[in-house]
Write a structure and sequence with these properties.
The chain is of the alpha/beta class and 349 residues long. The chain contains eleven helices and 17 strands. Belongs to the zinc-containing alcohol dehydrogenase family.
Length: 349
């Protein structure tokens, strides 16, 4: 534990964390990591120590506040932080839950008792209407979707009436809500190889695409894409990939209308070659492709504000497991891999 906190640093007593899909990729060996490290970046906790607050944003915080923080720390001065307005790609980037003990300080990941929040990290208080379990994934999954679907990225006169979401995990379900509430999309179709997750999506305003073929365990291997084509004369206006499965992308491009938007969020692992997809198909569609990795500080603010406004309208409590103790992390990862829950929660107190 630090003896003294530098200006704008915070010492947070971690309360709960959730297991993100990227952590699951690391645990499975699909994604490389510098080890040893403390994993975990989706989390929240209570401020128990503060360095001198010199930033206006820090001055609004106090000891005892329930908070969450951006998954990265930035320098404020480099080109990505200033001219490019993409601070999550800062030249001096530090990422919580992704940094080895050699380069960090041992208090960098959420699967631990405490986190030392650095001075360039965006921190936000959590309103009372959001429980600890729902607050934990705010700083990753929810904020990433607000970055992916930031209305400033799309021309004002863009036609949005139909959408296809690839993947019915937490990213996908939250995408459905944002599309319906902020984009006023009337029909949000969704695909997921797990039929139980597809059915869960109906509670979040989505229309599951029926299957044409399943395997021996009941997982969907082929979707009835004509189901969408019959209801959209020209194809869907926007496709959002959240599933992390490159095999889903060609069908998504095929179902996109001319001039539509394809947003890629979930393919954050090396095994993401798009296989049969050709440049011709993208050009012929006059498609706009958006690749989104992480988010900016404003998207964390937006995710908390938006969730606060809809938290009573959807059964979010059905998405996050009951907390497991930190001592049961292997069990927690196994449960996350089973896809029984959109997020598995870990109790850190």
């Amino acid at each position: 534990m630090p003896n003294k906190l530098e200006p704008n640093q915070l010492l947070v007593k971690n309360m709960v964390a959730t297991i993100c899909g990227s952590d699951l990729h690391t645990w499975r060996g699909r994604r490389s990591a510098h080890v040893p490290l403390v994993l975990g970046h989706e989390g929240m906790g209570k401020i128990i120590g503060m360095g001198e607050p010199t930033l206006p944003q820090r001055k609004a915080l106090k000891i005892g506040d329930r908070v969450t923080w951006s998954i990265f720390d930035r320098c404020f001065h480099c080109m990505p932080c200033t001219a490019f307005n993409i601070p999550q790609k800062c030249d001096n980037l530090f990422k919580y839950g992704h940094t080895s003990l050699e380069k960090g300080n041992g208090l960098d990941g959420c699967y631990s008792s405490h986190t030392l929040v650095r001075g360039g990290t965006h921190v936000v208080s959590i309103p009372d209407c959001i429980s600890n379990q729902l607050a934990a994934p705010l700083n990753c999954a929810f904020s990433t979707i607000h970055a992916a679907l930031d209305l400033k990225k799309f021309p004002e006169d863009t036609h949005f009436d139909t959408a296809l979401v690839l993947g019915a995990g937490l990213l996908g379900l939250y995408t459905c809500i944002v599309l319906r509430h902020l984009f006023n999309v009337s029909k949000v179709f969704i695909t997921d190889k797990n039929p139980e997750r597809e059915q869960m999506a109906t509670k979040f305003g989505a229309i599951p695409v029926p299957s044409l073929e399943t395997d021996s365990q009941g997982f969907i291997q082929k979707f009835n894409t004509s189901f969408i084509q019959q209801q959209t004369k020209h194809g869907v206006d926007i496709v959002v990939e959240t599933c992390g499965d490159p095999e889903a992308v060609p069908d998504g491009i095929h179902l996109l209308r001319f001039g539509g938007h394809f947003v890629m969020v979930g393919l954050v692992h090396p095994k993401s070659s798009l296989g049969s997809l050709t440049g011709y198909e993208i050009i012929h569609k006059c498609a706009t492709i958006h690749g989104i990795h992480n988010y900016g500080p404003e998207h964390l603010d937006r995710s908390i504000s938006f969730l606060s406004s809809v938290v009573d309208q959807y059964p979010f409590h059905e998405l996050v497991s009951a907390p497991l103790p930190l001592s049961a992390m292997d069990e927690a990862f196994d449960l996350a891999a089973s896809q029984k829950w959109s997020r598995v929660c870990v109790d850190l107190e």
